[in-house]
Amino acid sequence: MATADVERLGWLAWLGDWVYHALLVVGDFLIFSGRTFSWMFRRRPARHTLLHSCHDVGVGSLIVIIITGAFIGMVLAVQAYAEFHSLGLETRMGSLINVSVVRELGPVLAATMLAGRVGSAMAAELATMRISEQIDALSCLGANPIHYLVVPRLMACVLVIPLLTVVADFTGVMGGAMISIHLYDIEAHHYWSHSRAYLGMWDIGVGLVKSLFFGVALALISCHRGFNARPGSQGVGKAATEAFVASFIAILALDFFLAIILNALRDRIWPTPPGSLF
Amino acid sequence: MSKDRVEKFLAGSTATPTRSTVRAPRSPLTLLDVEQASMRFGGQQVLRDLDLAIERGQTLVVIGESGCGKTVLLRLLIGLIRPTVGRVLFDGKDLAQLSERELTKQRMRFGFLFQGAALFDSLSVFDNVALGLREQRRFTETEIRDRVRLRLEEVGLPENAQEKKPAELSGGMKKRVGLARALALDPEVMLYDEPTTGLDPIMSDVINELILQTGRRRPVTSIVVTHDMKTVLKVADRVVMLYPLARLRPDERQVLFDGPPAELSQCPDERVTQFIEGEARERVKNHKH
Ligand SMILES: Nc1ncnc2c1ncn2[C@@H]1O[C@H](COP(=O)(O)OP(=O)(O)OP(=O)(O)O)[C@@H](O)[C@H]1O
Ligand SMILES: [Mg+2]
Q1: Which helix (DSSP H) or strand (DSSP E) does residue B25 occupy?
Q2: pTM value?
Q3: How far apart are alpha carbons B108 and B4 in whole angstroms?
Q4: What is the DSSP letter of B252?
Q5: First vs last Cα of chain B: how many Å apart?
């Protein structure tokens, strides 16, 4: 066989190998998720472990979420002002800022922030437990590691991440209003009345549904990476990094698909859109 | 089918056809049975065609140099890993065929002292030992407290260490907490992975005594992995020596010695006497050139 052929085949083999392993990981992840859900409904975790996980996810993240939310709102206000001012429509800025924050940027950036803070920490913690054989020790003591370690973390994310998203939304809206009203001297009454006219319960609901999905994805991906860590301190570091990267991609992909699905759903419920910007 | 036939079937009697997962043990005394098991990690073969029947109540000591697969053997016995080829039977059941729930149930009949203790580092010493008891959901909190105290006392852990986290303990203390945790549920089978490594000579002897006592108090089957010849001579009914596959000819068995400890020193195989006397001999010279 000519060398060129061998090289081409080598490349193909590499690709085949990569696809094969990717499929293995995805399959393993799906089984892992299925088992986590089945344990979640079979037996509730002990109260103190659940509270502990909620504390880890929530309390430590509150400050960063407040800061993230506020900056999103403020940046949006600065960017929107340039456009809206030239059209003479400054009073309507609130509609754009608030809909963007609540429907899109609040949930996505809060989840991204939490993937970095909570997700990689969970992955690193579980990876350490894996390589020091603590996970094996659990199953030798009759405790199911998925029930004992993954379920409380998943439930904490499901409960706490939507709450944190509400906080991010709130500070985002406040940040946008502060810049618009105090820096650009837009009349508060008009700003708020336009905001209220365009921001419906639907938008808030969409944001929260998204954050729920993000929370589930982030928790499952991070725990799965931790459970499958390779030995050594490098393995722990790698698990944490992979958890963040995979969660981030999953968040963006879910955001895209949920946008399509939820928009289709809205069109089905209200054949004419409830309100457009202009 | 008549009622007694059903009962016979459920009891696993050989008179009726049994499922492949429920096989009568080789001898009625055999509790753990490794059948032609091989273990391979990626390209590295660690165990090859291992045959080992462990009887109820026996104390089997496994010796062999570092890296020969002793820990892998223990992990196979408790079903944490599955052999690449062959089977591991516990009480006649193939561990690889059991459902997750059934496997968990069988595992609770084991106690495992991990080589690195594997303590839960987010829990206190007390909670580490109590975890298995709490998971059983049949003990009251007072019963749990008494049992944990007793176990920690047996392994000679000072009272004030109970509320400490594993990170605040010395290596030897960790090992002893791991031992207390493994013994907490009064297991039928105890797996000890190097129980005396990292302990001072007196504490080592305390642990050896404890292994002996555990066996005397109730019928316990123990498998002890160790490098400590004192432990071998003190606790073993039977000694098995494994040899690393890398230095073995393809036609040789991996078990170099299998017999009572008294016969160890008379073993004709040089590699066995070399190991028990702890002499490097030509192995060092090989490295110099
Ligand atoms: N999970 C694993 N993945 C890959 N290789 C492994 C794994 N577990 C064990 N091995 C390999 O199997 C071999 C035997 O390991 P094992 O831990 O059983 O040694 P050991 O006899 O217990 O040694 P020691 O006395 O030092 O504890 C080693 O060469 C190790 O590299
Ligand atoms: Mg070992």
Answers
A1: none
A2: 0.86
A3: 30
A4: S
A5: 74
Task: Provide the token pair at B169.
Answer: 């303990």
Give B 15-74 residues with CB within 8 A of chain A.
Answer: none
Tokens 């009887």 belong to residue: B55
Cα A214 off chain centre by: 4
In the reported structure, the alpha carbon of residue A132 is separated from the centroid of ligand 1 by a whole-number distance in angstroms of: 14
Amino acid at residue number A256: F
Residue A233, classified by CB atoms within 10 Å of its CB into exposed (0-12), middle (13-18) or buried (19+), is: exposed
**Least CB–CB distance from B104: residue in A129, A132, A139:** A139
Phi, psi for residue B222 in degrees, rounded to 5: -125, 140
Tokens of A178: 């502060």
Complex ipTM value:
0.84
What tens digit of pLDDT does each residue of A196-255 get? 888 888 889 999 999 999 999 999 999 999 999 999 999 999 999 999 999 999 999 999
**Given this model, what pLDDT does residue A274 score?**
55
What is the domain partition of chain A in residue ranges? 43-269
Q: What are phi and psi of A92, to 5 degrees?
A: -95, 5
Kindly state whether B107 is in contact with chain A, defined as any CB-CB distance less than 8 angstroms: yes
Which of B101, B102, B103, B131 is the mutation pick for testing A, counting most A CBs within 10 A?
Answer: B131
Cα–Cα dist A101/A97, whole Å = 6
Residues forming beta bridges with residue B22, ordered by sequence position: B93
Q: Which two tokens stand for residue B75?
A: 């992990």
Residue identifier of the C-alpha nearest atom 31 of ligand 1: B67
Ligand 1 centre from B212 Cα, in Å?
27
